[in-house]
Design goal:
Alpha-D-Glucose-1,6-Bisphosphate, Chain A, domain 3, about 400 residues, alpha/beta, single chain, 12 helices, 20 strands, 4 domains
Length: about 400
């Protein structure tokens, strides 16, 4: 096509995003299956600083099919950007005390930088599965699923570590385990990071997705920020951050975006470094810090695989049956049904053929009641559905 290509080699996706800011280019393509199964692959595309998604990707696909592409003589050069990327983070982050850290790279691309980066920040690091292997022989690299965090939980407890962190296959998402071996979901992580950012920038916007805890908006308001709920999906959240000028954004899947002191793209490695900086300034243990944040009974994201193309129709049929009594419906992305004592969400996955759910409530009875309402409605649509709750 006549493009001059800079080949970064095997790197996490955030390094590609970093390259589009610091090299003489605003465009880049990452070849990655992210947290999808090993036999999946895909492209994350940035053109002139904008992430392509939805109709833009479909239009590009159509151009490829139709052969409507420019031809020319281009070039390829190799560049190792890892030292510059690591140096930019170590220049920005200052830990007030060293922390003992377990890092689970899940045999993904974060393996090539994460252990070295956190040692350079002064941490004592124990690595788990930090050898790149796209077959993912130890566990699937998706920190959004509790089963994938079991080895990290065990290692944190065994090592007496201050913190455990896990990354997805391409390193743009983060999962966290506190010093007590408890998983800290990203919406609660965002509460702590929002407090830190808003201390310096009161009144700033903070964006979170529809899967996040109902306590998050209240915490952002308490810290002096403006909470903005938005649709799930890293490209959608990133676009909303650019539109609003928000300094921080995040979603339940573990994508965290910093515009304060960073570039505004999702970066699990930088998010971990910022978290370490915040925790190193606390006299309390990480488990005690997180225990001070509000929490309700909540599920992780629950996934129901469905035949290709069926997810959107199922969600739409659920919505068409109308509102539940004494509830409020938020239709940003699928539908989030909010009650006085909790909420339930159903939406179509952006990355796979599946319907996804999440629930949060004040207690077990409220959680069961909300799940029963969702279950009854879906089984009325199709009694053969295998619901994940």
């Amino acid at each position: 096509s006549g493009r001059d290509v800079v080949d970064l080699g095997l790197v996490p996706t955030p390094v590609l995003y970093f390259a589009t800011h610091v090299l003489d280019t605003r465009s880049g393509v990452m070849v990655t299956g992210s947290h999808n199964p090993p036999n999946h692959n895909g492209l994350k595309i940035v053109i002139d600083g904008e992430t392509l998604h939805g109709d833009e990707i479909l239009a590009l696909r159509e151009r490829i099919i139709q052969g409507g592409l420019v031809r020319g003589e281009g070039s390829v050069v190799q560049k190792n950007l890892l030292p510059e990327y690591m140096g930019r983070i170590t220049d920005d982050i200052q830990l007030l005390r060293p922390l003992k850290l377990v890092v689970d790279c899940g045999n993904g691309a974060a393996s090539v930088v994460a252990p070295d980066l956190f040692r350079a920040l002064g941490c004592e690091v124990t690595g788990l599965f930090c050898e790149v292997d796209g077959r993912f022989p130890n566990h699937h690299p998706d920190p959004g699923q509790p089963g994938n965090m079991e080895a990290l939980v065990a290692a944190v407890r065994e090592q007496g570590a201050d913190l455990g962190v896990a990354f997805d296959g391409d390193g743009d998402r983060i999962g966290v385990v506190d010093s007590g071996g408890r998983i800290i979901w990203p919406d609660r992580l965002l509460m702590l990071l929002a407090r830190d950012v808003l201390m310096r920038h009161p009144g700033a916007d903070v964006i979170y997705d529809v899967k996040s805890s109902r306590h998050l908006a209240g915490e952002i308001l308490t810290y002096g920020g403006r909470p903005i709920m938005w649709r799930s999906g890293h490209s959608l959240i990133k676009a909303k951050l650019q539109e609003t000028g928000a300094l921080l954004a995040g979603e339940m899947s573990g994508h965290i975006f910093f515009k304060e002191r960073w570039y505004g793209f999702d970066d699990g490695l930088y998010a971990c470094a910022r978290l370490l900086e915040v925790l190193s300034a606390e006299a309390m243990s990480p488990a005690e810090v997180f225990a001070g944040l509000p929490e309700s009974l909540a599920t992780p994201e629950l996934v129901m695989p469905v035949p290709e193309g069926a997810a959107a129709g199922l969600v739409q049929r659920f919505i068409e049956q109308g509102a539940f009594p004494e509830s409020k419906q938020v239709g940003l992305d699928g539908v989030r049904v909010e009650f006085g004592d909790g909420w339930g969400l159903v939406r179509s996955s952006n990355t796979r053929s599946a319907v996804t759910f999440r629930f949060e409530a004040d207690d077990e009875n409220a959680l069961k009641r909300i799940q029963d309402l969702f279950r009854a409605r879906f089984l009325a649509i199709d009694p053969a559905l295998k619901l994940p709750f």
